[in-house]
Design a protein that fits this description.
alpha/beta, 2 domains, 16 strands, globular
């Protein structure tokens, strides 16, 4: 199937926009690669320090040209998704030895859980943790002793931060090893119903905590299709995972076999062998286009509209919001996974999963088929499914038929013809809206606004019964400069209650929504943000906004908006408590949301 004209057009535009930065980046990578294996530049003293604790591997490290793999791990046992990584270093070391290589834990990176910090002050560090992760991974790999890297990370900011680091060290290969989703628990729609009942005062906290514990109940990623699982999808579409590895449950034989296979592949693709595949050759413009198409086809998290431009920039590729919008318009929505449906990622995987989805999109000409991946050249190999038998691990042809069309459909009969994400432009700035889970009759809303500057103020107004008519809730001073751009997911149950009461409601903010945002229209990432003097700072209660996700516009129907003085709230309280003091330089130097809200790239 020839490449779709719109995909080709967007790709060519990205290549042209990125020509200078990509050329500079690739020149740097080629020069670094030309220096040869990393350890060849270490003195005897350097090497002695690096190998001192390596036991039986010490001799091989010091005298053998065999590859040495650096493990960058985001392990902690507070994140359910990362707890399985506790076992991975031993599995990797043994697999490396069997492959004639060695492996060392190069370093750890922080990994915070947005589920723990939702609605809490700590969420104000969440987005910036992506940059900290990239920096920490850079420190880990700076020892220059590694011929390839294995990246252990799954969740929201961790994978983007690791990709930024992997691109920065793009002259060595990198393979991402996931941990997989937890097995299914309380259905996500039931959990959402309980949350709304609690917000409405119908049940007590004991019933709420019982439901939450039944939903988040074991090792692995949360089972809804939020940012963590969207990250895993991207790693396959962009060729940084081995095929079919994203949604295999932790603690299974197949999961361990895939970890071994990832280690073996990392050892095989170093510059010391004949299949040298540095990250810089994987992460080109076409790979990022494939990632965006995957995001649209699966109804993935809006957080990736922030992360993908930041990841791409680290590889010299410049993405713009118009690229997301234009690709969304031609990419059919093939998956219905909560919050865009009732199924969870385990059900999605069983129905055919990413292999089926990639196959459908290749057949429709919506993906670049000839990208380089860690598994070899060509995305067709990502339609295969890993199988574990007595004979060992193998990849077999994946299903070309959906096993449950209520969850996964062919490109010829999608859930909807577009990806359900729109760029918004107007006199309030630029932003995005995800509509794949929003009923069509709510794609256009025109209503007076209520302006708030904290989530807490919205909650208090809700408790006081202040919302009795159609309302667009504006929550401003939530951008990266103001307070680190926390997710406002704690507002979702409240706004859903109002919507279920028959009101037309929407959220407009310069902050973020969770990857689990769903049925309430939310215009997010509005840029320029209010703290930078953006138009949101000039809104007043009662102003009318028209939010039109069909035409891609957001307008304040206010003739004197530009002449008003912007609000100037006291943001000094955002600078202390729960570690916020340490991030003052991040808030002062962060870029706008429209280009990824990045600090380090």
């Amino acid at each position: 199937m020839p490449l779709h004209n719109q995909v080709a057009k967007v790709t060519d535009r990205i290549i042209a926009r990125s020509r200078d930065s990509r050329t500079r980046y690739m020149d740097l990578m080629r020069r670094a690669a030309a220096e040869g294996p990393r350890r060849g530049h270490l003195s005897c003293s350097n090497q002695a320090h690096a190998y001192a604790a390596m036991g039986t591997d010490k001799g091989r490290l010091a005298t053998s040209p065999a590859p040495n793999l650096g493990i960058v791990t985001a392990y902690n046992d507070m994140l359910s998704a990362h707890q399985p990584f506790e076992r991975f270093p031993d599995i990797i070391r043994n697999a490396a030895r069997a492959a004639g290589a060695t492996a060392q834990v190069a370093g750890g990176v922080p990994a915070m859980c947005d589920g723990v910090t939702q609605g809490q002050t700590g969420m104000e560090l969440s987005l910036f943790s992506r940059d900290v992760i990239a920096l920490a991974a850079g420190v880990a790999l700076s020892h220059n002793t590694f011929d390839a890297a294995l990246y252990l990370g799954v969740c929201d900011k961790i994978v983007p931060g690791l990709v930024i680091a992997a691109a920065t060290f793009g002259y060595i290969p990198g393979v991402f090893l996931p941990a997989g989703p937890m097995v299914s628990g309380l259905p996500n729609d039931e959990k959402a119903k309980v949350r709304q009942q609690f917000a409405n005062g119908e049940i007590d906290r004991a019933a709420l905590i019982a439901a939450e514990m039944a939903s988040y109940h074991g090792p692995g990623t949360c089972t809804f299709y939020g940012t963590a699982n969207t990250n895993q999808m991207l790693m396959e579409f962009m060729g940084l995972h081995l095929p079919g590895t994203s949604f295999v449950n932790p603690g299974t034989g197949l999961r361990d076999a895939l970890t071994v296979a990832g280690t073996e592949r990392a050892a095989a693709i170093t510059a010391l062998g004949n299949a040298y595949t540095p990250v810089c050759d994987v992460l080109d413009e076409r790979a990022f286009v494939n990632g965006i198409v995957g995001l649209m086809a699966t109804g993935g998290s809006t957080n990736l509209v922030l992360h993908l431009p930041a990841m791409a920039r680290a590889a010299g590729v410049i993405l713009a919001l118009e690229d997301f919008d234009d690709l969304s318009q031609v990419t059919p929505l093939l998956a219905k996974v909560y919050p865009n449906g009732l199924a969870d990622v385990n059900h999605f995987h069983a129905a055919g999963g990413l292999g089926y989805t990639i196959g459908q999109l290749l057949d429709a000409g919506l993906l670049h088929p000839d990208t380089m991946t860690v598994a070899g050249k060509g995305l067709e190999r990502y339609t295969a499914e890993p199988k574990l038998s007595a004979a060992g691990l193998s990849w077999e042809p994946g299903s070309r038929t959906s096993l449950n069309t209520r969850i996964l459909r062919p490109a010829t009969d999608p859930f909807q013809p577009t990806g359900g994400l729109r760029q918004l432009n107007g006199n309030l700035g630029t932003g995005v809206i995800k509509t794949s889970a929003v009923a069509a009759e709510r794609h256009v809303i025109e209503a007076p606004v209520r302006v708030f500057e904290t989530q807490e103020a919205v909650k208090e107004a809700f408790k006081a019964g202040a919302f009795t008519s159609d309302t667009i809730v504006v929550v401003r001073f939530q951008g990266p400069q103001a307070n680190g751009m926390p997710e406002l997911h704690a507002l979702t149950p409240l706004l859903a209650v109002l919507q279920d009461r028959g009101l037309k409601v929407a959220l407009v903010t310069d902050g973020r929504m969770s990857g689990a945002s769903g049925k309430v229209p939310a215009a997010i990432h509005i840029s320029p943000e209010a703290a930078a003097g953006g138009p949101l700072a000039r809104l007043r209660d009662g102003d009318v906004i028209r939010l039109d996700a069909v035409s891609g516009t957001i307008e304040a129907l206010v003739p004197d908006l530009d002449s008003r003085a912007p609000a100037t709230p006291d943001l000094s309280g955002n600078g202390n408590g729960v570690g916020r003091e340490l991030f003052a330089s991040f808030r002062a130097n962060v870029g706008p949301a429209a280009t990824g809200a990045a600090v380090v790239v």
